[in-house]
Specification:
The chain has three helices and 15 strands. The radius of gyration is 19 Å and the shape is globular.
């Protein structure tokens, strides 16, 4: 069930589009403290999400080019929590006809690279997405394959920067650095509100440290009196001018999902 709390729209200011500099006079102890605080925030945010068991949802993906021309895709999402490891996620495309039946499976991991597979119905085969290819576009969207995986805490190092006003809220700003050398990103800036540690914004910087993309998140509702889920995720590519909007709906928690659905065999049978 959802809460009666109204979603809050966030505007984080122009600081989001510029690199945030670390003071040059920061000593080793201050740096260590900032790194520990950044890690603590990430750990606390994860703890708030533990115990949901599973959920299903529907999703509308809207792709826009620089001129504003749109294409739309409808899909279903299933997520299963796995104790002591990363979650399992399954995305199944229903529309349009040219992508119908395409399915994407993620086995997230805390201590190693995720496993990702894409089922292509036209070829009737499962394609494994290699680590080297995860910076590529997911189904033509502005989300990369690596963006689709849950950002497990252990896959980054962290540095707390500061708190700042975030619309009606106050947000922590944390810089995180991917551990995987094959990541398409050098670093990311993350805005989470201090109240519930909900994610509102992420700035992505490419391997040359240029500002590549911005993800903004909105429309949070609370389920099971604990778990916050967003209704809208917008990824803007600042280089190409393209964007992708993911609209989530029909969240259902603790449904009758089977582990078999989240296997390569289940991926082939996804309908």
């Amino acid at each position: 069930m959802t809460s009666n709390l109204a979603p809050r729209r966030i505007a984080c200011g122009l600081v989001a589009i510029l690199p945030i500099a670390i003071p040059l006079d920061m000593g080793a102890s201050e740096l260590a403290e900032a790194e520990q605080k950044g890690l603590d925030i990430a750990m606390e945010a994860r703890e708030k999400k533990v115990g949901f068991e599973n959920f299903t949802a529907s999703q509308l993906m809207v792709l826009r080019n620089k001129q504003g021309r749109e294409s739309r895709r409808a899909l279903r999402v299933k997520v299963m929590e796995v104790e002591a490891d990363g979650d399992r996620s399954l995305f199944v495309f229903d529309e349009p006809r040219d992508v119908q039946g395409t399915a994407f499976l993620i086995h997230a991991h805390k201590d190693k690279a995720d496993d990702q597979w894409l089922y292509l119905p036209a070829l009737k085969r499962v394609k494994r997405i290699s680590s080297a290819n995860r910076s590529g576009s997911f189904m033509g969207s502005e989300f990369a394959y690596e963006d689709m995986s849950p950002p497990e805490v252990e896959r980054f190092t962290y540095r707390y920067l500061h708190d700042e006003p975030c619309g009606e809220l106050t947000c922590t700003v944390v810089e995180r650095f991917p551990v995987d050398e094959k990541s398409g990103y050098k670093r990311q800036l993350v805005w989470q509100d201090t109240e519930e540690l909900r994610l509102w914004k992420v700035d992505y910087f490419d391997r040359k440290d240029a500002h590549l993309k911005t993800l903004t998140i909105d429309g949070y509702e609370r389920y099971l009196d604990r778990y916050w889920q967003a209704s809208t995720m917008t990824m803007v590519n600042h280089v190409t001018g393209k964007s992708t909007v993911l609209t989530w709906a029909d969240y259902q928690f603790r449904t009758e999902l089977a582990a078999m659905e989240f296997t390569q065999t289940g991926l082939r049978r996804a309908r």
